[in-house]
Design goal:
mainly alpha; Amino acid/polyamine transporter I; 19 helices
Length: 420
């Protein structure tokens, strides 16, 4: 079902407005982009740059292209059908299958919130010395406040997310511009290459963690509720503008991730600075190798990431439950349910970086359950009509799915057999 929350009376009116009309359609991809710059990405990308310099730049680029394709399919699903991915899974699966899908998706939502809340808590500790447990509570409250903006329509929430994304970007790029980046080595990093098993493991971590299951579910819901296409021309307009949205939103996420790796490569690679595989170690290393401005820029970016991604994760949880079960629970109850595991982890003094790693393991289990239905549904003409994927798009999507699932399998194997 499609609901119009805000905006002009018709898509036709938007088409007449030119670029101003396109601005009304932009937004969903920026919300989705938050999942690609969450606290887990901070640790992984900085570790890659610190340990291997510019070698894995190509991995960031490939990961970003994969993200664009997958999010484009999710966005198209919402526009073409007027339904989101969980709703369509419920409609086209047996009841027991839909409930199993809901169960694993809820587990993914909890794991997602665990990572985001921990990231926000660590940032508050680095900036203000706030204990981790208290920082987790503050992060949860801020995320709840972000979600409350939805009562005013989709625009206020999206503007808040874009503002936080801008903080993340400024916090990192401002440091990047102060560094003496080796342009030749950076360009050389675009050529696929590895340097031993450690670089392969890190590349697997970057690529394998590219796809966040909860945001695949969410993106289709973001596009289904914005505007109603009343003609084929309207639909084509929404799809074209949606692709622009994805290029801009995912492009911003890619720039943020690339900035992390380049900063670490320029400052930490070969320097002997210890602890650059932890968030706290990165903060200390930036202060040592550059200055406190860079260290606090990192911490502020991490804080914005924790706030934004926690809000988006809880929003995704609402979509998951409503879609798979056709039920809703009060937003406060959902916020408390997903926040509780993170607070337990922080309260018992579990190492934050280790908790982030474990949350990524749980997310790995959920990836096939989100990707496979997405590819299956968007390839079906009885679901998508004339907007069904072309054979080339379906082949590319299957290939990306196979790569992501395989890489996450490698990550799981590494975790359970070697503890990497």
């Amino acid at each position: 079902m499609t609901a119009v929350q805000q905006g002009p009376a018709s898509v036709e009116e938007l088409r007449r407005r030119g670029w101003r009309g396109r601005l009304v359609v932009l937004g969903p991809a920026f919300v989705a982009a938050v999942a690609y710059v969450d606290p887990g990405n901070f640790a992984t990308n900085f570790s890659a740059g610190a340990g291997h310099g510019y070698l894995l730049v190509w991995v960031i680029v490939v990961a970003n292209l994969m993200a664009m394709l997958i999010q484009a399919l999710s966005a198209k699903l919402g526009v073409a059908t007027g339904s989101n991915l969980p709703e369509l899974c419920r409609e086209r699966m047996p009841r027991w299958g839909a409930r199993l899908m809901w169960g694993q998706a809820e587990l993914v939502a909890v794991a997602t919130d665990l990572a985001e809340v921990i990231g926000g808590a660590v940032a508050l500790n680095l900036l203000f010395g706030i204990p981790l447990l208290h920082g987790g509570l503050i992060t949860g409250v801020i995320a709840f406040g972000l979600l409350a903006l939805q009562s005013r329509g989709h625009r206020p929430f999206e503007r808040a997310i874009v503002f936080l994304l801008a903080i993340i970007l400024v916090g990192l790029v401002s440091t990047l511009f102060r560094l003496d980046v080796d342009a030749g080595a950076l360009a050389g990093g675009l050529a696929p290459a590895f340097s031993g098993i450690d670089s392969l493991v890190l590349a697997t971590g970057i690529l394998g963690a590219t796809v966040m299951p909860h945001v695949i579910y969410l993106h289709s819901a973001l596009t289904q509720r914005r505007l109603v296409a009343r003609s084929p021309e309207d639909t084509r307009y929404l799809l074209r503008t949606g692709r622009t949205d994805i290029v801009l939103g995912m492009g911003l996420a890619g720039l943020v991730n690339l900035s992390m790796l380049v900063i670490a490569a320029a400052l930490f690679f070969g320097s002997g600075v210890p602890g650059t595989d932890t968030l706290e170690g990165i903060f200390d290393g930036l202060g040592t190798r550059l200055d406190t401005v860079a260290a606090y820029g990192f911490a502020i970016a991490l804080l914005a990431s924790g706030f934004a991604s926690s809000g988006v994760g809880t929003y995704a949880g609402q979509v998951i439950m409503a879609g798979f079960l056709h039920r809703r629970i009060p937003l406060l109850v959902r916020r408390l349910l997903t926040l509780a595991p993170a607070l337990v982890v922080l309260g018992f003094g579990v190492d934050p970086t280790q908790a982030l790693v474990l949350s990524q393991v749980v997310l790995s289990f959920g990836i096939p359950f989100a990707l496979a239905p997405l590819v299956w549904l968007t390839a079906r003409r009885d679901v998508m009509g004339d907007l069904a994927n072309s054979r080339a798009t379906t082949a590319a999507a299957i290939g990306v799915t196979a790569v992501v699932v395989a890489l996450n399998g490698v990550l799981l194997w590494q975790t359970f057999t070697t503890g990497i």
